[in-house]
Amino acid sequence: MTWYINVNKHTIRDNALRGTDEPPVRISRGKSGKGRYCHEAVLPAGSKILYNSQDPILKCGARLVIECPTKPEVIR
């Protein structure tokens, strides 16, 4: 199964406005899998960036994602 990474722009905005440090990077298994949030991850070999301006790639509405062939390593 493919893994996907995307960034939650709303979390980044809220962190800037409220002075918080919530993790904005979301890693999920499959296109509609439950996401795990983190601040930093290591991408496995063979990962690629995908963008689709017409249709969301993920169920959450993300149009820009990093597609990974294996599970990325979460650092923090």
How would you sum up this structure, described in words?
There is one protein chain. By secondary structure, this protein is mostly beta strands. The chain has one domain (3-74). The chain has one helix spanning 9-18, and strands spanning 3-7, 25-29, 36-38, 41-42, 48-51, 64-68, 73-74. A 5-stranded antiparallel β-sheet has the order 3-2-1-6-5. Strand 2 (25-29) and strand 3 (36-38) form a beta hairpin. The longest helix has 10 residues, at 9-18.
The gist of it:
This protein has 76 residues and is mainly beta. The protein is built from 1 helix and 7 strands; from the N terminus they run E-H-E-E-E-E-E-E.
Task: Name the descriptors.
two-stranded antiparallel sheet, 5-stranded antiparallel sheet, mainly beta, 34% strand, 76 residues
Write the layout of secondary structure elements.
Blueprint: E1 3-7, H1 9-18, E2 25-29, E3 36-38, E4 41-42, E5 48-51, E6 64-68, E7 73-74
Low-confidence stretches: none
- Tell me the total number of β-strands: 7
Given the structure, what is the number of helices?
1
Q: Please write the string of helix (H) and strand (E) elements.
A: EHEEEEEE
Strand order of the largest sheet: 3-2-1-6-5
Span from first to last CA?
Answer: 23 Å
Mean pLDDT: 96
- As for the number of domains, it is 1
3D shape: globular
Identify the quaternary structure here.
single chain
Largest sheet: 5 strands, antiparallel
Strand % is: 25-35%
| Helix-residue proportion | 10-25%
Classify the secondary structure makeup into a structural class.
Answer: mainly beta
Query: What gyration radius follows from the Cα positions, in whole Å?
Result: 12 Å
